[in-house]
Amino acid sequence: MLRTLKDLFDNLSASLAAPADGQSRPEQEHTLQLATAVLLVEVMRAEPTMADSERDAVLHALRGKFALSEDELQRLLELAHDTARSAYDYQRFTGQMNEHFTQEQKVRVVEAMWQVAYADAHLDAHENHVISKVAGLLHVTHGEYIAAKMRAKEAAQLG
């Protein structure tokens, strides 16, 4: 089973570049899982050092959003790291979300990004830039963006 899961996740990177129309429902779901994971990882990668608390926040967000086993979560996180390293823009990830996520789901992704940023009790300017850019690409309004930021900040007990 683990081998089949690995094969499935290995094929997801190619799926992000392909149009969603030709994908089966499970492939579409896995593509969205990877897109979400990559954006969360991008927040972690925005700082020069990656804190364990940020990695834990990524896993927590993915666990809350998707019904995946711990092995699947770990593999998704690995694949997200690999995909993020070679990503040249966010559009290929946000485009999938814009097609398939509700506005509320997109706001929750932005809020999860803020949770990752605040996980180490320090907000870096690069993290702020990544989240702002992604929120714009997801068509999250400024009010939704600020509300998501404040909920994440409050959850992190930073103010």
From TrEMBL:
<dbReference type="InterPro" id="IPR007791">
    <property type="entry name" value="DjlA_N"/>
</dbReference>
<dbReference type="Pfam" id="PF05099">
    <property type="entry name" value="TerB"/>
</dbReference>
<dbReference type="InterPro" id="IPR029024">
    <property type="entry name" value="TerB-like"/>
</dbReference>
<feature type="domain" description="Co-chaperone DjlA N-terminal">
    <location>
        <begin position="33"/>
        <end position="149"/>
    </location>
</feature>
<protein>
    <recommendedName>
        <fullName>Co-chaperone DjlA N-terminal domain-containing protein</fullName>
    </recommendedName>
</protein>
